[in-house]
Amino acid sequence: MVLFIEQLLNGVQLGIFLFLVSAGLTLIFGIMGIINLAHGSLFMVGAFVAATATTASGSFVVGLIAGVAAAGVTGLAMEYFILRHLYHRDHLDQVLATFGIILFANEMVTIIWGRTPLFFNAPDILNGSIELVPGIIYPVYRLFIIAVGIAVAALLYGVITRTRVGMLVRAGATDREMVGALGVNISVLFMALFGFGAMLAGLAGAMAGPLISVEAGMGESQLILSFVVVVIGGMGSLRGAFIGAMLVGIVDTMGRAFIPDLLKLFLPIAEADGLGAGLSSMSIYMLMALVLVIKPSGLFPASSGSH
Amino acid sequence: MSNKRNTILLVLLGAILFTMPLLLDAIGQSFLLGSATRILIYAIAAMSLNLILGYGGMVSFGHAAFFGVGAYVTGILSFHMFEDTTIFGLAGTNSAAIAWLASIAISALMALIIGALSLRTTGVYFIMITLAFAQMIYFLFVSLQRYGGDDGFMMFDGRSRIAGLELGDDISFYFVCLAALAIFAMGFKTLVNSRFGQVLKGCHENEPRMRALGCPTYRYKLVAFVIAGAGAGFAGALQANLTEFVSPDYVHWTRSGDLLIMVILGGIGTVLGPFFGAAAFLMLEEFLPIIFKGLGLPLLQEHWRVVFGPMLILIVLFAKKGLYASLMDWGRRKND
Amino acid sequence: MTDAPILIVENLSKSFGALKAVDGLNLTVQTGELHAIIGPNGAGKTTLVHQLSGQISPDSGSIRFQGLDITKMQEAKRPHLGLVRSFQITSIFPQSTVLENVAIAVQMQSGHSFRFIKNARADKSLSDPALSYLQQIGLESLANEPAHTLAHGQQRQLELAMALALKPKLLILDEPMAGMGADESAQMVSFLKSLKGTLSIVLIEHDMDVVFALSDQISVLVYGQVIATGIPDEIRNNPKVRTAYLGEEE
What we know:
The complex is a heterotrimer. Chain B is mainly alpha-helical. Helices cover 72% and strands 2% of the residues of chain B.
């Protein structure tokens, strides 16, 4: 039971990362109709800059801010120089060009930071563990991540439901042409939204730094998981991204923790280990397949038009 | 006439490919024969992707999965042959006839499953889902500890056996791959010109119209997806033979991207384009570092991808016609 | 000629959210007639066409074609029964040649296409009939041009040729003259006149002159319901129609 709750929390914490990355992805697709493979690179930029800034300044907060800012700036540059020329191109062009950005970004990061993974620690105040309820001890830093993630989700929810920008975003996700008709300066809105999505990815990267090794290519595994999230949750929907991210985070973590043990109840240990590893790494894709069979446009589709 | 030029190009290409081992020997670069063979193999894989991408309009970002499945099937059969053990109760084999056909069949089966799910969607969803499923196959292979997990495994039994041919000899193997490519290309051309090919093109240009004409498009797209998967699986079986090594790296998501680039670079929706694309891509990969070294740019020699990425973006933005079309148009004035 | 209706629509309804686009619609089309459907914008004409062709499925009600209930039948199966539509917004294969556009329709009409070997482009059994449909509609001189190079009116004609190549028993034409010039419209009207009697036609059209010139029967659609059906003179003089629809036009 203790293990179960710990794993559940780990799942939620992975879900938070996935939510931060997929929120930007889904918003950007929802309003601009563009698929950006390089979104994972922004996660990576956030992590690298946060690592360097934390080490240099000795302050985790400075590192966090620097990581978010760097991802935001990188995102704006990406939008200005490349993506805005692709809005009216087909998805294949967008995929290839942003694939090119990934190759460039990963190599650039290797040039600047080298091939050795970076490690940096969370500040002392967040190190250590606390006893949540008697018998369940959980690392403070992971709780911090969950808290930040929920705060961001609440903020996003407020912005999307209560503000004019949020109204535009919602309208854009349902009917892209309409936003143009509302007399909004589209290119400014796009850039702002893009920068914002980039900052969310950067925040996830910066916070992930103390937990995973910071290395070139780290963004893409997040990106592909975020795709799974978006497919499950429904494209263009923040609520879908949040629930999808939680589902993926929890299923993945739980699967890895418990499937091999479950199999050992039925199978010899050697087979159970082999099969268990395979099955648990496939669990979220099975989940995605299931959603595709039941609801091909995701659990919370933003637009009813596409299928 | 474009036909005449096409014929000249084909004859020239055939002559170069047919004499490649001699040519390389003459310039003292025989070690490049492996690279040349790799081009032939990837040309088959890129061609198979082009069937769904260029003709069917399905942007699959997971095509390397089928390539990998093909490689693993041939590799695993060889593994059990060498170990003299069984898999699912079946003995291993090193017979090309059995192993390669098994690669093709199982890749086709995987493509049937993945395609049946992915084709329930279109557009961006389709791209993301094919990528995700390919990643699933990747992790599946990584989890196969028996077959080396992350690191993959060597085929200690060597290349597959065909009666009367010594595939262990690099030149023989080159010619087997060349013949495979030639047969594949001819089959491909026949296919895209057939009624099936017309339906596929129709789905690409205007799928709602095809449905209104009475075409159950899902079925046709799925069959195309399966054929493409089988083709990539065949290429994978050849690749496993070439290197006598199989690893999850074949299915790494960037490999799927590479295949897409090959198709675009060479000329999407043309029969021969993907061959030129595969050749150009693999040669760039091989020679770009050497060129930068020659230019005295050691930083770029190591990090050639930092040039390759932007190059790709520029090609997408400005020169999407592809190499094949450029060759066909080269030196000709536009007068239409 | 049989007197049985070719199409019977009963109590058909379709809503989009709160909007009832089609609301308990009844319609009967007799075999061999040209039946026009008129109505103001937003009356549900296109929603009706989409349901007849199977592009969207109704919430309730039934559609019977030649006595067969096709309410839930897949879109792609309907053309094979002889129920064929054209699109309000021109829908062709822009990159293919004009001939290829019609040839693919001929191909669809001649059995399944899981045929992988024989060259379809050199297949006379496809191109000959395709060419004759192009001759019928007057586009044969443009047979080898890419379809996207055609003028708008010609593309509308091409679309009609594709529909005819499916050998329809009932042809649903969704504003075939939309966006055409006066000359092209007149040409299309006389062509449709020449088709009359060879097959049944449901014609969605705004232009009243065209409708009154061509139709055997007219149904008036308002707010998703048919408020009147009759021969042109009856419709012209129906007071309900005049207030609900024709009156607004003046």
